[in-house]
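Data availability (excerpt). All sequences and predicted token strings are deposited with the supplementary files. A representative entry, Galactokinase, is shown inline so that the format can be inspected without opening the archive.
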Amino acid sequence: MDTASKPSVLQQFRDAYGYPATGAWAAPGRVNLIGEHTDYNGGLCLPVALEQRTLVAVALRTDGVVRVHSRQSDKTYTGPIGDIAAGWAAYPTAVLWSLARRGLPLGGIDLAVDSSVPVGAGLSSSAALTCSVALAVNELHDSPFTRDELVQVCIQAENDGVGAPTGGMDQTIALFARPSTALLLDCLDGSTEPIPFELHGAGYELIVIDTRVKHSLADGQYGLRRSQCIDAAAALGVGSLREASADQAETVRDPILRARARHVVTEIERTRKTAELLRSNRFSDVGELFDNSHASLRDDFEVSCEELDVAVAAARRGGAIGARMTGGGFGGSAIALVPEGSHAEVIASVRRDFAARGWRAPHFLGVVAGGSAARL
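Structure token line:
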């Protein structure tokens, strides 16, 4: 249930600043069906946008001041335009910084932020925030930048402004999603292809299992994996692991780099196969690819954790035809593809296994593929 709404964020803005906003914009969170840690390797990924969104109410200022109020923290950041804040306000202020670096004349801004995208769940809450802010500010300045350019604005904001070395998948799906479709993204050339993703017509449901184990992409592990992939590509003499075959990956001498390369090249192929299956409505064959993806992320890329592994195994025992961790890893969420009408059994199985270990209960979301960022 998306509790963040246009009326509520507009009222939040008025309560915080004492005058009405010019308008409100929203961008979705995302769940990646398959293709994990492939984006920064020039590979393929297959995300869908969620119904859960981040909303921003916005008005421009002329005095060089930025104010950002978040309902989730109930705090207001105030600082000069061009500065990048610390903490939660780093993301919106980094977007302003990135836009200014591209020549957009910014005189100041007031922002109110509300969100129903779970933070730290691997569902791209950060890109939902940066893309909603970027689209709002761009449109309030008569849209000098295309959506393709805004993707780059938001990537720079996260990579260089915040210090979170993400790829481009999250920003692309937030700005280019279509309802009832997944988006096959080729990260080598930036091209996209909409892939039909109408679950209920096919007799399936997709469940997100938020383990509520928090992670941060800026904590060093994500960056380490990225640098290991660069080193593996260099060892193979290729520009990126997208250019390597599975046989070539096995020739990398260093065992850690070999495992990282193995994951990337096999994950790209799994993503390609998943898109082919979805095009022909063969959902029943996707489950094995989900299972193999999780095993690869756990064993070769080493970005899973005990909670994610338990969630995946419990979902499969509960009747899911396939399950895998999704997102950057080190916590966050798993997804499970289940026959329509059987989600209660899957959820109960996961809850039992978490309770047996004394862990707090996970959260569950049903996935309906939504649309892209837009003015409300």
